[in-house]
Write a structure and sequence with these properties.
Number of domains of chain B: 1
CATH architecture of chain B: 3-Layer(aba) Sandwich
Largest sheet of chain A: 7 strands, mixed
Oligomer: heterodimer
Helix content of chain B: 10-25%
Helix content of chain A: 25-40%
Largest sheet of chain B: 9 strands, mixed
CATH superfamily of chain B: Class I glutamine amidotransferase (GATase) domain
Number of strands of chain B: 11
Radius of gyration of chain A: 26 Å
CATH class of chain B: Alpha Beta
Chain lengths: ~750, ~230
């Protein structure tokens, strides 16, 4: 194929172009022609198509996401907000923390190992590009039914990919989730989060300013992997290639998933941190989705606009790649830096030290055009902002699904409850051994949680916690939570419950929640039902953040998560970041000492809609999710944080899926102590053990602090009921049943290995 | 004069900073060494830290073993300088033939990260003097290629000469960190050379030096205080 130059495009306005195959709509193609005043060249078309894809442009979600920027709570912690690679939050003592969660759902279904691995790689580079040293990762994961044969293909591959890539980078894996539900069977959710730490003065932004400054591409060579992955993978439901072939229709758009090299990424991290330390870059951007198309257009448009790139200087893994392919390649482990000419030599020296290939591929220019050349001939001449930011914006139609009322009317509170103590006991064992409630150590033991020597808390604790200053013991905590079942019943409430749970988890460790990031996993935006779920969930989340005082620093949207016409449960995942002045004061979840008094904080109501009990015992999803009271969540958080700071509690565990019995099981097994439990007045044993009312936690209070603690709860108006004492080697619910810890441990820990080994 | 202990950073080394911290906490002066630099900068002992040097490509430790810094380390270790290889460092020591045997992929084929119980079999090496023989300790284990292997004759020799420095404690509760985690022959977790100055093990003492972080135990500190005492008293 001959080179499609700008000159050629101007001379052949009527040449047919594959805009449709590249995923563009007719009006989008017309808009590109209008912007350029001619037809785009092949290279320009490639750039616009990837950058205007759902994944890069957020064209369906944008109109709803803007609430996160409008409903901003008063909070002086935000240093950099939405729009940059990742948001940045002030955590005190001159430190700033950046964190973000992203999805790698579709690639991980096609190729679980590489899909998950490159998900880690991408989020880590995002954090690095802000100027931070990545210190920890978390992985919220959702798979199909635990006993489905394909889960045995997807889950071990995803876990091995996260471990294989993440362990090799030296980042502690401190949290996340593993959830099973048949709705994720053909579309697992592989989200990855990363936390980075820097000093305020080290914040770097993605912009190319200063004409004459050099554009340096460094890291891995560019290959053919992931070409078109962004526009096609993330934007359209992929179909089975064999089915497509059989039907004899057009070929499937399923492209190659990118292949990761964690060793290269580790070198890139260390090399980049050394470059930051010597203050050698004026702007920096990682190469992720849409590769060079994204990096050059975003860097240029964030600066003064002008940039000239000689594309034939890009080091290649495959010499036969066309310029269009080079622009679209999603080869991993690459970064793009803007460097003043006087720093170029030193920049190159550091890259050489770390065996990282670095190439000057262009420079920042006067003017406002992004110009790309191939062996001297111009193939791109565009205003970069039109590529990076002026993509289409859709106001997709949305409407409350017809089935929503019926779903909510199918009240889980009416399901048959255990009639005898023996039945209650049997249901407790069924619950704690069910795949969703069972121990996930088979998964998390494949991740390195110790590296860097700063891990204060890691899974299965409520939140992961990392020390960031060895002198002062300043630390940060992060939890990620989401409950697709709740969100399916009511997306507004479901999103707020995810926020509340994550907030509560962070507070339970003693850290003060500061800000959030999110990963919004939904079905097709072209389905009005799904779009309604999305609109409701974003509205719920934005309202919730305003009320809790935790701004949204950024996030990620993943749409088209569905199999055929069936969408996944709407699954907003919320990551809350908190700060703790002295990590010595952190509160663990284990009941470590016999004699500790157990208190249930908050109100328990009969709330079983979407509960683990309704799923495990009745395979039921219906009714309303638990009510949300964010004022109560805030109060509970303040009590948990004060109690941690003043040494009033030895342990704390949030209550969420599985309710009280799940929390007791986890805290007892972790502390290797039993508990004698009394059902508090006004509650029946069943509701007490299984309800999933929000705004609750269990704490273990040393006897010496009991009065001080209960006085504090009383004064602040937080219900606190004494429910028992840590003791012995069984969980005894008085008048109901006893469960030896050994039996409980077997039930809780054998499930996942038995399913996957 | 303070005792200087070096920690080598190869491309892909991960636990170098943890090892430097452990050395500092033990009271010695930590010194960073770079793989391309033959000069050991007058250190009195060297730690080869964990990680995935060169991405474990070809074979764990196989490429690092040929780096310039290793030339000097091999020479000085043969002359009696204390060298500790942790995890990837142990793999490098076997590749460099400073210690016998090799590490294979774990028998369950997975990466495993856990608190691991070990028994100190030899408390007379340069790195174990502050333990007592038979003492049980718990330190983190994290690897995918951790299964110690050698031929029968070598294993017999190691046992006969008291060069099995650490063994996995196999009796007891797995929840307590007991059990052979990867199929290592004769439950071997770590070994030494005949002189006792070179020790290699798969678990990570540098991750067990502070009560606040990691597993909350400090069972790994004696590694570093042992060598410090040995050097000061030498």
């Amino acid at each position: 194929m001959s080179l499609d130059t700008v000159k050629n495009a101007a001379e052949t306005p009527d040449a047919a172009q594959p805009w449709k195959e590249l995923g563009l709509k007719e009006d989008e193609y017309a808009r590109i022609r209008e912007i350029l005043g001619r037809r785009p060249t092949g290279a320009e078309l490639a750039m616009y198509s990837v950058m205007w894809s759902e994944h890069c442009s957020y064209k369906s979600s944008k109109v709803h996401l803007k609430q996160f920027g409008e409903k901003i709570p008063e909070n002086d912690a935000m240093l950099v907000g939405i729009g940059e690679n990742a948001g940045v939050v002030d955590v005190g003592q001159g430190y700033a923390v950046t964190f973000k969660v992203e999805s790698h759902n579709h690639p991980s279904y096609i190729e679980p190992y590489q899909g998950a691995a490159t998900g880690i790689g991408g989020i880590v580079r995002d954090i690095l590009a802000m100027g931070a040293r990545p210190v920890a990762v978390v992985d919220p994961l959702r798979f199909g039914a635990a006993d489905h044969p394909d889960t045995k293909r997807v889950l071990p591959g995803v876990v091995a990919g996260i471990g294989g890539y993440g362990n090799c980078l030296g980042l502690a894996n401190i949290g996340g989730e593993v959830v099973f539900d048949a709705c994720y069977q053909g579309n697992p959710l592989v989200n990855a989060g990363c936390i980075g730490v820097m000093k305020h003065e080290d914040i770097h932004l993605a912009k190319a300013s200063g004409p004459g400054n050099k554009v340096i591409l460094y890291g891995a060579r560019t290959g053919g992997d992931g070409i078109g992955g962004v526009s096609v993978l993330a934007s359209e439901t992929f179909t089975d290639p064999s089915a497509a072939d059989a039907a004899g229709t057009k070929p499937t758009k399923r492209p190659a998933v990118q292949v990761g090299d964690p060793f290269q990424e580790k070198l890139l991290i260390e090399c980049t941190l050394e470059i930051f330390k010597e203050k050698l870059v004026a702007g920096i951007q990682d190469l992720g989705g849409a590769g060079l198309s994204c990096a050059t257009s975003e860097l240029a448009s964030a600066g003064s606009g002008g940039m000239r790139v000689e594309l034939d200087t890009v080091p290649l893994r495959d010499a036969t790649l066309s310029p269009e392919e080079i622009l679209m390649s999603e080869s991993q482990e690459r970064m793009c830096a803007i460097v003043e000419p006087r720093h170029v030599d030193r920049f190159m020296e550091i890259c050489e030290k770390w065996d990282v290939i670095a190439t000057v591929i262009g420079e920042v220019t006067e003017g406002e055009r992004l110009e790309i050349f191939w062996h001297g001939e111009q193939i791109v001449d565009v205003p970069p902002g039109t590529v990076a930011h002026e993509g289409p914006v859709y106001h997709r139609p949305y409407a409350r699904p017809e089935w929503q009322d019926a779903l909510q009317a199918d009240d889980a509170n009416r399901l048959p409850r255990p009639a005898t103590s023996a039945e209650l006991r049997a249901q407790v064992l069924a619950l704690v051994s069910s795949p969703n409630q069972a121990s996930k150590s088979w998964v998390t033991d494949q991740y390195d949680r110790f590296v860097q020597g700063n891990t204060v808390l890691a899974q299965p604790e409520d939140a992961g916690m990392i020390r960031i200053d060895e002198e002062t013991n300043l630390g940060v905590a992060m939890a990620t939570d989401g409950n697709g079942r709740f969100a399916k019943l009511d997306p507004y409430t479901g999103a707020q419950l995810a926020l509340a749970e994550s907030y509560r988890n962070v507070a339970a460790t003693g850290a003060k929640p500061l800000a959030i990031s999110n990963c919004l996993n939904f079905g097709s935006p072209e389905d009005p039902d799904v779009m309604w779920q999305f609109a409701e969930a974003t509205r719920g989340l934005a309202d919730g953040c305003l009320e809790l005082g935790t701004p949204v620093t950024g996030g990620n949207v993943s749409l088209y998560n569905q199999t055929g016409a069936t969408a996944i449960h709407p699954t907003p995942v919320v990551a809350v970041l908190g700060v703790i002045d002295d990590v010595n004061r952190r509160t663990p979840m284990a009941f470590a000492e016999p004699g500790q008094l157990l208190y249930l904080l908050g109100d328990t109501a009969e709330e079983f809609g979407g509960s683990a009990w309704s799923q495990v015992v009745h395979d039921h999803l219906g009714g309303m999710p638990p009510k949300v009271d964010l004022g109560r969540e805030k109060l509970l958080g303040e009590i948990l944080i004060s109690a941690s700071r003043d040494g009033m509690v030895d342990a704390a565990h949030d209550l969420s899926d599985g309710g009280v019995i799940q929390a007791l099981t986890e805290s007892c097994l972790r502390g290797r102590n039993g508990a004698r439990i009394v059902v508090p007045e006004g509650l029946d044993a069943f509701t007490f053990l299984f309800s999933e009312s929000a705004g609750r936690a269990i704490v273990a209070v040393p006897r010496s602090e009991e009065l001080r603690f209960t006085d504090m709860c009383g004064a602040r108006g937080l219900p606190a009921a004494r429910i028992g004492v840590v003791d012995g080697d069984e969980i005894e619910v008085q008048g109901e049943f006893t469960l030896p810890l050994a039996e409980l441990r077997e039930a809780h820990e054998a499930t996942i290995p038995a399913l996957l080994a | 004069m303070t005792t200087r202990i070096g920690v080598v950073t190869f491309p892909g080394t991960l636990d170098d900073r943890d090892s430097l911290r452990a050395i500092r906490l033990a009271g010695a002066e930590p010194v960073s060494l770079w793989h391309r630099d033959k000069d050991l900068h007058q250190v009195d002992a060297v730690v080869l830290a964990g990680g995935f040097s060169y991405g474990d490509y070809l074979r764990a430790g196989a490429i690092s073993r040929f780096s310039p810094v290793m030339e000097t380390i091999i020479e000085q270790a043969r002359g009696g300088m204390p060298v500790l290889g942790i995890c990837n460092g142990f793999q490098i020591l076997t590749e460099a033939h400073l210690l016998p045997g090799a590490m294979l992929r774990n028998n369950h084929l997975h990466f495993i990260c856990r608190d691991q119980k070990l028994r100190v079999e030899n408390a007379e090496t340069a790195w174990t003097g502050d333990y007592t023989a038979g003492q049980e300790i718990s330190i983190p284990l994290k690897n995918v290629d951790g299964r110690y292997t050698a031929d029968e004759r070598t294993l017999d020799e190691l046992e006969a000469e008291g060069r099995v420095a650490f063994r996995y404690v196999v009796d007891g509760d797995a929840a307590d960190g007991a059990g052979n985690p990867n199929g290592s022959l004769r439950d071997i977790a770590g070994i030494s050379n005949a002189g006792g100055n070179i020790v290699g093990l798969m678990p990570h003492p540098e991750h067990a030096v502070e009560p606040l972080v990691g597993t909350g135990r400090t069972d790994g500190i004696p590694f570093f205080t042992s060598v410090l005492k040995k050097l000061v008293n030498a």
